[in-house]
Amino acid sequence: MGILKVTLSSFRNHNQKELSFGEGLTVIWGDNGSGKTSVLEAIHILSYGKSFKTHKHRELIKNGFQSYIIRGAFKKSGSADTIDTEFGLDRPQITKINGKPISSRKEQVGRNPVVVLSPEEQEITKGGPAQRRSFFDRVFSVVSKEYLKTIQSFMRLLKQRNASLVRIREGKASIDEVYGWDEQMLGVASSLLLQRASMLEEFKESLLYLLDRYSDDVQIGLSYKPNIKDIGDYESVISKTQRIDVSLGRTTRGPHRDEIDTLWHGAKTRSVGSQGEHKLSLVFLKLAEMIFVKEKTGDFPILLLDDLFAKLDLGRSRKLVNLINILEKDMGESIQTIVTTTDIVDIEQSGILSENPNVTNHHLVR
Predict the structure, then answer these.
(1) pTM here?
(2) How many Cα neighbours within 13 Å face the side chain of 116?
(3) For 198-227, b where at least 16 C-beta lie within 10 A, e where not — what string?
């Protein structure tokens, strides 16, 4: 079991709304603008501390109101959590776990993980390396507190080094200032590169596991090109690029420049993929994320599917449903899945209702 219920107060277009969820499939349906995706967005915020649609909390407040509140009840492996998050125009975001305020998102990430598949996620396959690094950094942070700590430390040092580079360029500091940051970054960068490479190999295994169980001959892969191949060369590389870094005011070499690509039959998806191939690649990445989290934590994350069956053709929709059923049988447990749709017929034709006799159903109206 994952989430039991969520309560929304002045969140997006919801004034006051409470929804409950079953252990298996929950379908949320209604017209565009009825707030279906907002429910998934709220669950994501309770899980990760931020939305998958916007970084601006003020955009989440219902028009005419000054704040929003989200409350969720979760149950996993015999333990229960209540998580409250609120934000106001006159105060920062505050999150409480079981009534106790948390001081950092680190206390929240990985506690009740979710996997969301929505149109906003398509940049993972279509966008540049930064989008894919962000995706994998988030996934790896969910299953490893060490990875989360390492990536946060590296990004903090990178920001400070870049600030020093700007000061040096403006004549407000000497080049000596950057040496101190370089020394600190060396150890953190080394750890990040080793962890990222190891995690990516494990993620590839989850992806291959799925492809072996899919009925079509689909070849989806990942390639990893570290910006600095040998960590032993890190110190010399960033020393050689100091002059360029100063002129640009930013650090040009390091793990923040690693390239991770999705592959479609051996070629970069970003370059050769059609619309349908991008969609299918994203579906497999997200299902691989789900398997990866399960393997690393022992529990399936909550699967959030935002209008998925309207984005895939009928044949692929049915094959996807069959694949999820295979995963449940392999693992011997159900996957809590929350689906949104504008057309209940899309859901019926996909076959997901016939495979899930006990369905929780919510019809939202504008």
Answers:
(1) 0.92
(2) 26
(3) ebbeebbebbebbbeebeeebebbbeeebb
